[in-house]
């Protein structure tokens, strides 16, 4: 994922991301990218990024066009939104079920096969089978990723987050990405990597929503007419928010947690109406999952047993705590926060290294994946040999040693009546390992030394696995390491604390999650829905609060970090402190290209060819007004449609009615798919005129040039703008001083212009 | 509450609301209030409303002043916010406990006394005792409300909602209001009215937060120096959001529901940081309540038994449903939505009538309360006589007839071994009645005729009770009527549906809540936390979805309706449709008063005296600039502080340094407490000059006059502004065309200017 999107890739681009913000960067490009390259050395090229138009243009003609094209009443439109939410919920739920069944069956088969050889004491053969299966699965995942959809690598949550902020990264929501995300994730998780399928589920949900929103994929010939009602970025954004929430709901069976995740972490803007629709989507997911579990409980799903869909029951542990427990929990939170932020730091370093490696091509990517897979296999198979065989406890409900695919008390190399505690953690799916760690009333089941070994291995493997070319979620590695760490602390505090080690384990997971992801309420609710126990809520909150605070002292949350690393121009909710000392005028750079109200075709074509700007100011001049006057903003996409329609005139005259007549034919909504090269304008037409008034957005947001940059940034961010005019303060000057886009608010740009400004992190 | 805030009241106003937006309304006042009076005939005078400054001025001197005054570091400031959240949580939780114990004990004592006479068959005496207790309690509540704090009447949620939208209604968060809200609510609920303590709890939480935010009350001599750090409206808003969430959490024991309530219903703006702090507050409340319940469970709280803090356990009912059940539930939702919107309609009519009655004075208010109290007593005591005595069922876990204060199977007039089902509903606290209605596996306990009578009585009493001069929540009446209606439907569908009638009852309550309040996610989560059963979630969501949709077809949610009725200038999230056809210039009215950068003291004093404007544009003119140029916006409060400081000069010169020197002395944060009358400016000083540059906000938000009004409204709303400049499009005109405030966006104002615009509801 870290070396996609070079210019050469543009031709394979999906319909929606062809017109790049690419060269938008004006003459400043060189300067800016110098700085960018220092900060975002990862190959995510600026060319692959496009800003989204969340602002609906205020313009009679465009509105009329949308209205005609939509051909449905407001009621139907609203109904359709709900239908879409329903479809998103259903399909995300089904994908969640499918990938759960697939993972459990593939991994289960692999583990069964390994165990057979183990039981025959053919340990080398067992390793070869185990490592071979892992390798095969890993290679398939890597091949899918490297050749079909490089954007499907990684978690996907940072990209979805950036999309909802208004940045469309290269083919991040394309159908190929969806395909690879689903199957790559299944292979990757089944291959025994320390990765989860939760992040990919969020990305999957968003992809499904995006596909629905754009009415299928034109590239693959999968388009449905009746789906094409949401052609604007704003409606698409809402759908994708629903999709992200559905993904979390499907991953954790947490409908309320999903909504809160979308609200707290994913979305940059939120409306009350969206809250409800999102909740509806996640509820549909919850219902689908429930039906599926009932279906599978009668043994219809192969090896899919009680594992799979994670749901940890810690209700057996009595939640009673006193002062020393609270102290232990506080310590747990502090160390968890520190380890979490260290995790972020190391992931960042590893990602930077991998991005350089991955840039060398698909083959190198696959080799890297195979290397990590081998390393993982060696760890999982080799480390359990370090553990001593432990005699089975007398009174346990499950059999010991266990003969199931999942479960505690794995026998491994041990004699009958004994079990290997490390093998119960390593030679299991990640979900089952977490379940074992969170199990209550089993304080002595794992040795402290085993826990230490497992913690070290998982912490290390989690860090080096993220960033290789497979779909890889971050939730599970963090929960895995965190719950192991929590159990470790629990064992250490056993003499003084009355809390169950299973509970400590949960709190450890919470502290790690808080330390890396820095979400709070949504994590709290997700953990609540996972464990179904309201009584631990106060402790979980305490731990999350502490670990998040600790982590925030050192670095940003892992998703924010990845967004930054990828060079995506993410608009933060709060302006940087130094922006208070600058004014809007200070960051305006480069010459401004403006059009007249009725402009020569040749000028427009030239401007479209020579710049990558997506918005141009239109200025009325005599005879259309007394003095130069700002008329509005035209978008590149609308200009292209207008030029393609060829409504030109020999003289400089208004042509509103002419355009209004051809409005259905023109189809402004399609503008995003057009390029300058698609235009076929003859030489004599270049000297003709075209009236831009009908397509100009007559109410663009603008700030006075002396407006503090911080306040301009707040305006830009809160209203979800793509272009913002800067207008002069004093009179007698041209009516527009410049245009600000999201790039102009990026620290890299501002610090490039004013290197003396001290950049506090 | 509906006749407070006449001009005469201003003198008793609390420190924070002295400078009214009152006369701000410019010459247009007469015109506007004509229209307003048609729409908002309720006595809530426009004079009692003040807009809040959520925008932090960008201005060196004011910032410097705040910094010096604050005298604490950023870290301490952040820490303090958390400490405040803790205090809000603690105190709201404690108030919740106190009012619960008080209500349960008072009401319990009353019911015990009545029962004693009943058992002696002295039915008339029993009625006199019962009605007398009710009357006394009602009269005390009414007296508190009428004489001490008229603002404490009603639910309080609409006012809190308006405050968080930027409108400070008259003394709505004053200490007297808090006092009356707590004690009035206890008396009102104990008096057997069909009212709840949930809405008042939200208001109470907000009042506590507001008091903390302004550092106590100056009027009552309760100020603490160390509390006075949050002197700006923005921080206060955040605290009050926490307070509102804490209120819901305390009322329903629903920490997550509280957060979502604040998010969905109360707050108009939301930040991620706030989410976490709000959650912390509600968690503190939850912990406090939990400790209290453990304390009370050993019988330390008098008559406070398992009643009081509502928590309904329906987990005994198995949630299995098939197609006919779903149909029944859909029907339930449809009818519930219709009845809910009818409820809103009737409440609106009754409120309008009451407001006319209440305007006649405190005595009339009390008479009205007494009348309603008598009516309620007659209903609760009289109607059970219509019910037939039912023989006790054979196998029940509780005793029958019941001898407890609360509980099912009340004996009333029945012979031993029989019970009166209507008495179990009427002669109980509202909480216990709801618990009886929601009880599971008791399908035959209530006769259909009894349910019909109770439903009719509660629906009717709920409508006529809201609006009288006592603190009265709307949640409980709606839940009461809804759960009765749900049980009724459940009984009717008994032959075809497998769902328990207790479950139907819950769904009925949900449908009524959805139909009146129109909240969705927060209600869903509150009901979830109340019943502690995740399995009913899909059904509850379905019902809420249907009933909200049905209700929205007819009218607005009840809180929005009350906000409108009170004439509070609430900014809606979405601009009205007709605003798209207007531009900013169209709604600018009246002459504009501007100041020069260095202005004559006399002019300023005159302007302050003659207008009620709270913001004035400052325009630089030669020699300070080449041409007239917009310098910024000065606030009335800052002007008053500057004039009081008397930093005048004989000549027209800049005085930045002079003001900077005296900055600590001036204390701009105190400006809100000042009035023009407080100034003591001598005749000769009137001709001197004062430099306004240092106090002008140099980065006011502005729109070009041709900006569509809809977009201007979005800007105004999203950024939480109080003043917005309208600047000219063409050159050669004064640099400011006008100022827009929230009043200019109100439909009443716009429709007053353009009566031909059709106002679609």
Automatic annotation (TrEMBL), chains A, B:
The keyword RNA-binding does not apply. CDD domains: CBS_pair_voltage-gated_CLC_euk_bac, ClC_6_like. The chain crosses the membrane at residues 82-103, 124-149, 169-195, 239-263, 269-289, 326-346, 366-387, 451-480, 501-528, 534-551. Pfam families: CBS, Voltage_CLC. InterPro entries: CBS_dom, CBS_dom_sf, Cl-channel/antiporter, Cl-channel_core, Cl_channel_pln, ClC. It is found in: Membrane. It is a multi-pass membrane protein. Belongs to the chloride channel (TC 2.A.49) family. This is Chloride channel protein.
């Amino acid at each position: 994922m870290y070396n996609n999107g070079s210019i050469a890739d543009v031709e394979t681009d999906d319909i929606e991301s062809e017109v790049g913000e690419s060269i938008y960067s004006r003459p400043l490009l060189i300067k800016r990218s110098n700085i960018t390259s220092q900060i975002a050395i990862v190959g995510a090229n600026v060319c692959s990024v496009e800003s989204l138009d969340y602002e609906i243009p205020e313009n009679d003609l465009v509105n009329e066009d949308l209205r005609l094209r939509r051909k449905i009443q407001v009621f139907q439109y609203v109904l359709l939104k709900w239908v879409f939410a329903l479809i998103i919920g259903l399909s995300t739920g089904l994908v969640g079920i499918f990938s759960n069944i697939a993972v459990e069956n593939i991994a289960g088969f692999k583990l069964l096969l390994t165990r057979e050889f183990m039981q025959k004491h053919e340990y080398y053969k067992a390793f070869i089978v185990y490592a071979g299966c892992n390798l095969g699965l890993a290679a398939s995942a890597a091949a899918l990723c490297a050749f079909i959809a490089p954007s499907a690598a990684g978690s996907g949550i940072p990209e979805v987050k950036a999309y909802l902020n208004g940045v469309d990264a290269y083919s991040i929501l394309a159908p190929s990405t969806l395909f690879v995300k689903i199957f790559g994730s299944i292979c990757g998780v089944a291959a025994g990597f320390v990765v989860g399928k939760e992040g990919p589920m969020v990305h999957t949900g968003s992809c499904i929503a995006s596909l629905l929103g754009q009415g299928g994929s034109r590239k693959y010939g999968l388009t449905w007419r009746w789906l094409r009602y949401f052609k604007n970025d704003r409606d698409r954004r809402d759908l994708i928010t629903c999709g992200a929430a559905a993904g979390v709901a499907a991953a954790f069976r947490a409908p309320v947690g999903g909504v809160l995740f979308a609200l707290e972490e994913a979305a940059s803007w939120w409306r009350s109406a969206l809250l409800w629709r999102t909740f509806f989507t996640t509820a549909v997911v919850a219902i689908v999952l429930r039906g599926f579990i009932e279906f599978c409980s009668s043994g219809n799903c192969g090896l899919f047993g009680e594992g799979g869909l994670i749901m940890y029951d810690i209700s057996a542990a009595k939640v009673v705590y006193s002062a020393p427990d609270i102290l232990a929990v506080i310590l747990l939170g502090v160390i968890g926060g520190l380890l979490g932020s260290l995790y972020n730091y190391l992931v960042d370093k590893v990602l930077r290294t991998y991005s350089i490696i991955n840039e060398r091509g698909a083959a190198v990517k696959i080799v890297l994946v195979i290397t990590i897979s081998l390393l993982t296999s060696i760890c999982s198979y080799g480390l359990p040999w370090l553990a001593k065989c432990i005699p089975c406890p007398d009174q346990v409900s499950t059999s010991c040693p266990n003969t199931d695919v999942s479960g505690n008390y794995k026998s491994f190399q041990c004699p009958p009546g004994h079990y290997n505690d490390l093998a119960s953690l390593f030679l299991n799916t990640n979900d089952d390992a977490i379940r074992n760690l969170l199990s209550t009333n089993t304080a002595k089941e794992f040795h402290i030394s085993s826990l230490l070994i497992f913690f070290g291995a998982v912490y290390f493997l989690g860090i080096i696995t993220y960033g290789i070319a497979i779909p890889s979620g971050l939730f599970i590695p963090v929960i895995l390491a965190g719950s192991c760490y929590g159990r470790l602390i629990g064992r250490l505090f056993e003499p003084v604390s009355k809390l169950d080690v299973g509970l400590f384990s949960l709190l450890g997971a919470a502290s790690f999650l808080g330390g890396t992801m820095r979400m709070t309420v949504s994590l709290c609710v997700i953990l609540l829905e996972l464990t179904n126990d309201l009584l631990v809520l106060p402790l979980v909150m305490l731990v999350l609060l502490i670990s998040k605070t600790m982590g925030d002292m050192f670095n940003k949350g892992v998703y924010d970090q990845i967004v930054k690393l990828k060079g995506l121009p993410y608009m933060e909710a709060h302006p940087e402190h130094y922006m208070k000392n600058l004014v809007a005028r200070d960051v305006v750079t480069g010459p401004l290209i403006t059009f007249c109200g009725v402009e020569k075709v040749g000028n427009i074509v030239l401007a479209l060819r020579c710049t990558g700007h997506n918005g141009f100011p239109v200025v009325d001049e005599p005879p259309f007004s007394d003095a130069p006057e700002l008329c509005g903003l035209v978008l590149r996409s609308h200009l292209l449609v207008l030029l393609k329609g060829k409504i030109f005139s020999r003289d400089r005259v208004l042509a509103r009615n002419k355009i209004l007549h051809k409005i259905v034919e023109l189809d402004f909504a399609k503008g995003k798919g057009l390029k300058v090269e698609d235009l076929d304008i003859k030489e004599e037409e270049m000297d003709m005129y075209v009236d831009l008034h009908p397509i100009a957005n007559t109410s663009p947001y603008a700030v006075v040039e002396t407006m503090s940059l911080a306040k301009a940034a707040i305006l830009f961010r809160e209203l979800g703008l793509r272009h913002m005019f800067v207008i002069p303060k004093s009179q007698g000057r041209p009516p527009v001083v410049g245009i600000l886009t999201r790039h102009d608010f990026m620290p890299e740009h501002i610090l490039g212009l004013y290197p003396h400004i001290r950049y506090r992190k």
